[in-house]
Amino acid sequence: MTVLVYLDHEGGVIRQASRSAITAATRLGDVDVLVTGPDAAAAAKSAAAIPGVKKVFAVTDTTGNSELAEPVAALLVQLAGGYTHILAASSATAKNVLPRAAALLDVQPIPDIVAINDAETFVRPIYAGSALATVKSADAKKVITVRASAFDPAPAEGGSATIEEVALPAGPGGSTFVATELSKSERPELESARVVVSGGNGMLNEENFKLLEPLADRLGAAIGASRAAVDKGFVSNEYQVGQTGKIVAPELYIAMGISGQIQHLAGMKDSKVIVAVNKDPEAPIFQVADYGIVGDLFTILPQLEAELDKAG
Amino acid sequence: MKVLVPVKRVIDYNIKPRVKADGSGVETAGVKMSMNPFDEIAVEEAVRLKEKGVVSEIIAVSIGEAKAQDTLRTAMAMGADRSILVETDVVTEPLAVAKVLKALVEKEKPELIILGKQAIDDDMNATGQMLAGLLDRPQATFASKVEVADGAVTVTREIDGGSQTVKLALPAIITADLRLNEPRYASLPNIMKARKKPMEKITPADLGVDMTPRLSVISVAEPPERKAGVKLDSAAELVSRLRNEAKVI
Ligand SMILES: Cc1cc2nc3c(=O)[nH]c(=O)nc-3n(C[C@H](O)[C@H](O)[C@H](O)COP(=O)(O)OP(=O)(O)OC[C@H]3O[C@@H](n4cnc5c(N)ncnc54)[C@H](O)[C@@H]3O)c2cc1C
Ligand SMILES: Nc1ncnc2c1ncn2[C@@H]1O[C@H](COP(=O)(O)O)[C@@H](O)[C@H]1O
């Protein structure tokens, strides 16, 4: 069996989530990978160094077309011939592209797998993680996205794959890339951070939300948010954790002023240790928290910082 | 121009789904069902485009059991002009749904198809992209802003690190994210009016689509339960526990 993995990278460095997808892929067969973008040459080098990767397809593109689903899906279809499985880490990019490619291959995709039973049988959460479905695919090829938190990332170094440049097909046209606006952050990436500090509606406003930063600094943490916090404009959408936001599973997840609705829990309940600070003792977040403090977060936050400074 | 809005009937998002004792699926009998929340947003967007004079007709479509009529009535109460029920008792997978929608698009020739980004039951996040692929038309998923002008639609999309803007020639496919708009509640008079709006009933076979799922469900299980931990009295105790007991800091 041979597997093609479509990798995400940032400035030429393969994302940790994509290395998790490679781990999943190596359980299925030999692994080739695809990287695209203006930094594809650097990304190809970084991908070639991942142990287990045999061959890297690289599409160097400076037009912005590699940001569009239409040509990338067409490329995946073009490459698909030799592969039994096409994989990617679950990400906005993969979710945009893979289902389109699957439709062109007449395949029903299998999103967000958390376990591989055999080459045709996979486990995936449904209903915001309220249930786990084991499904068996009858399709000749499988098109799969992998929930990164369920697979350890493959090492970044040690491999030596071959690299082949390929060209991006034209796609159906009619779609033009206009612009991307990325928010810059010095913090660790939400999905691969060891510690995540998240704020919810309880933070009250944008100003107060910033109060989480000193705590995150002390813990080397990424910052996350509930949808309520995003909706009210405390932070922008890429901070959202949950069913329809990012899925995280850090060593430590600290929820400040988050009630713990199922849609939020869907994005963080696989964290190793969960801490919740909430003034409502009945808040559902306490049902999943290992450690909880009932109280006003604005009182507890500075105390927490002081204790960390003391102990550290 | 015409807009087609596919709407799915799902377990209401406020209800905690229960796994059936025999592990064959999730209990839906006697459970409150509603329109998929993302589809409400899709309908709302279509209605706003109609209110702006950009759209002339909104057609809501649902593929599913006869009861999906209720969901179509809701869509019409929100402002859809007519609806199509494609009746089937089979579990609707995105590939089959996309094939049904493709057949309807070829018949109705809408210039815009607005779907939800994700159905909150199967959490597939696939149908819009698949429909766009089958139609060989441009797509803009996870839309947070939609502007139609001069035969094109400019869409701001939510991506992992921020947002992206793409411009699509019509006809095009859009999937709605949560921040696109706040859907309205249907007013009582509009609910009454919706009863009189036309609803066409057909079957997948009428459209020549085979609904047989490609994924067979071997089992559905409850995820491992997390236990509630301890409540602590102070920040000092929390830091000490995190350091000495959980050893995560
Ligand atoms: C289709 C759909 C998808 C969704 N997807 C997501 C998703 O991906 N992620 C997500 O998070 N949500 C999602 N939601 C929304 C979700 O249902 C909840 O509305 C949301 O998670 C609530 O956010 P919150 O806990 O911050 O706000 P609230 O529920 O308002 O809770 C705020 C909490 O803060 C506490 N609090 C207030 N002040 C203080 C204080 N001073 N000190 C301590 N505690 C305080 C309160 O006691 C309360 O428990 C989705 C909803 C829908 C319908
Ligand atoms: N059975 C269905 N009937 C109508 N629309 C559907 C159906 N299934 C999916 N859709 C549409 O496709 C979107 C994405 O669904 P999914 O790909 O299943 O997550 C939904 O938000 C709906 O707009």
TrEMBL record, chain A:
What keywords does the record list, in alphabetical order? Electron transport, FAD, Flavoprotein, Transport
The family line of this record is: Belongs to the ETF alpha-subunit/FixB family.
Q: Which GO terms describe its biological process?
A: fatty acid beta-oxidation using acyl-CoA dehydrogenase
Q: Does the keyword Transport apply?
A: yes
Write down the required cofactor(s): FAD
This chain's function reads: The electron transfer flavoprotein serves as a specific electron acceptor for other dehydrogenases. It transfers the electrons to the main respiratory chain via ETF-ubiquinone oxidoreductase (ETF dehydrogenase).
Task: State the superkingdom.
Answer: Bacteria
**Co-factor: note:** Binds 1 FAD per dimer.
Q: Note the CDD domains from the entry.
A: ETF_alpha
- What InterPro entries does this protein map onto? DHS-like_NAD/FAD-binding_dom, ETF_a/b_N, ETF_a/FixB, ETF_alpha_N, ETF_asu_C, ETF_asu_C_CS, Rossmann-like_a/b/a_fold
Q: What is this protein called?
A: Electron transfer flavoprotein subunit alpha
Q: Where does FAD bind?
A: 226-227, 240-244, 257-264, 278
- Domain Electron transfer flavoprotein alpha/beta-subunit N-terminal stretches: 3-181
Gene3D superfamilies linked: HUPs, TPP-binding domain
One of the entry's Gene Ontology molecular-function terms is: electron transfer activity
From TrEMBL, chain B:
GO BP, one annotated term: carboxylic acid catabolic process
- InterPro entries for this protein: ET-Flavoprotein_bsu_CS, ETF_a/b_N, ETF_b, ETF_beta_N, Rossmann-like_a/b/a_fold
The record ties this protein, via Gene3D superfamilies, to: HUPs
**Which residues belong to any copy of the Electron transfer flavoprotein alpha/beta-subunit N-terminal domain?**
23-211
Tell me yes or no: is Chaperone among this UniProt entry's keywords: no
User: What's the domain of life for this entry?
Assistant: Bacteria
- Which Pfam families does the record cross-reference, listed alphabetically? ETF (PF01012)
Q: Which SUPFAM superfamilies does the UniProt entry name for this protein?
A: Adenine nucleotide alpha hydrolases-like
Question: Required cofactors, per record?
Answer: AMP
Entry keyword Transcription: no
The terms under GO molecular function for this entry are:
electron transfer activity
Arranged from A to Z, the UniProt key words for this protein are:
Electron transport, Transport
**Similarity-based family:** Belongs to the ETF beta-subunit/FixA family.
Q: How does it assemble?
A: Heterodimer of an alpha and a beta subunit.
Q: Which PANTHER family match?
A: ELECTRON TRANSFER FLAVOPROTEIN BETA-SUBUNIT (PTHR21294), ELECTRON TRANSFER FLAVOPROTEIN SUBUNIT BETA (PTHR21294:SF8)
What this chain does, per the entry, is described as: The electron transfer flavoprotein serves as a specific electron acceptor for other dehydrogenases. It transfers the electrons to the main respiratory chain via ETF-ubiquinone oxidoreductase (ETF dehydrogenase).
Please give the name of this protein: Electron transfer flavoprotein subunit beta
